[in-house]
Amino acid sequence: MKTDTAIRHVSPPGANLFLELGFAPAKARRLQAASQKQIDDARVEMLNRIGKPVTLTVG
To answer: Is the model's pTM score more than 0.85?
Structure first.
């Protein structure tokens, strides 16, 4: 059986993925803010560990 690997949707940069997944707008905003805070906290932690700016990229 062949595995289906077709890409059907690509979210634009800055899109609220939680909204795209069907969460209510208010909840999607809260989830996105919490997610961004975790990303920011991880950047700060990495900066403290290595002592220089870190740029994280996905993809």
So the answer is: no
